[in-house]
User: What shape does this take?
Amino acid sequence: MNLDVADEKNIPDSEPERQYYFMDLAHTLVEEESKRLGRKLTSCVKTFGCQMNARDSEKLAGILSYAGFVPTEDEHADFVIYNTCTVRENANNKVYGRLGGLGNEKKKNPQKMIALCGCMMQESQVIERIKESYGFINLIFGTHNIYKFPELLCESLQKRDELIIDVWDEGRDIVEDLPAKRKFSFKSGVNIMFGCDNFCSYCIVPYVRGRERSRRPKDILREIEGLASDGVREVMLLGQNVNSYGKKLDEDVTFAELLREVNNIDGIKRIRFMTSHPKDLSDELIFAMRDCDKVCAHMHLPLQSGSSRILKEMNRHYDAAQYLNAVDRLRSAIPDIAISTDIIVGFPGETEEDFLETLNVVKQVKFDSAFTFIYSKRNGTPAAKIEDHATEEEIKDRFNRLLSLVQQIGERKAKALEGKVMEVLVEERNAQDASLLTGRLENNAVVHFPGDASLIGELLNVRLDECKGFYYLGSLVG
Ligand code: SAH
Ligand code: SF4
Ligand code: F3S
Assistant: This one.
């Protein structure tokens, strides 16, 4: 089926109406194909990367469902889309590795369609490599035009033998109100802003996600109200640096003010957010966290390095003392707050002394948990030009020393909660043992306890009977 002239005249110019038009058209195309094959068509969305990508994937899944595909986790599906990440080289390698498998399957099942989107697709060398070596792909688009997926899907369904590529350099308007299919019925990510203007010298995100743009508070609040009436109990407000929320909006609004508004929404029981940049962690935000009963007492505050010299090279705009001060301010306002972090080991030019300073800050702060990464060179970032000094073995050794320290501290902190009764949001049935449920504490730690699947989505009190390092075994109370 092709779009004839009459159809073209009917295509709305404004968004999201235009995309709803294409979703209906996709629905017709999928139905036709379904009739021809005598079965339903299936779709599979695979996410690589961060929570922001996970939320984007829910939008992709929402659009595919609207179009009539039956969702599945299985990559044997008729339509497979990878939502990719490029923050570190191994994220890219994972995608290339799995594409080979998809290609083999397409040989057996030629009507299968494969699409790629997300951060990796914003890099021209990636597109070149795919064109050269993975000719079986149907559709590629980037991070800025994800809302245009319905339109691209239609084009791709109609031109099955072509590779359609649509990647934009910069984001245009934020398009609201497209459907999303949530992975969990009771919790959801909510974008409050897109892009990043910080240009940390190692990081590719500002290049692949574009300039920082905030959604209007009324759109965010309307979305969360809708989620609440749909049974969502926990929201995670998402942005690369939520502390600078609102800075570019016409209206005068800060992240702290937004948080207070979200706290007033009936039905929402827990509010989380990520990520906070230490350089602009304001007292206003700390006090909003303290005052808002629904905001979890947990802060993810990426340190990256404990060496002030390296922090300067990283363009982070704070030094070790300022980071420690931010932690002090948080803990004096909210004494039981859990603090987690991200740390990079082996940034170019990092010496043993610099690394020891990182260990020192870790010892002082005593993080509840930490994600540790080995520096990965990203082409086009300023740090890629700095000459590397440490050897691979030295970096591996530092990484292992850091990991064992953060684990040791994390376990000790987790152990301190043993025996306590805490509120848990029940998330799922335990994958290994179906008699157990898995829930999450306010501090983001996981607890497994006996219970019935009907409790999923409820907030319940659970006694943390035994600490198993990074998780607990518990029992329901009352
Ligand atoms: N916006 C968030 C983090 C986004 S990326 C923030 O500023 O904290 C998540 C984490 O990946 C970063 O905190 C950093 O620790 C890590 N990361 C980013 N680029 C990296 C690189 N080139 N090599 C290794 N780790 C990196
Ligand atoms: Fe990357 Fe820094 Fe932006 Fe985070 S704040 S996304 S680390 S540039
Ligand atoms: Fe990766 Fe893009 Fe997130 S590069 S970490 S998926 S913003």
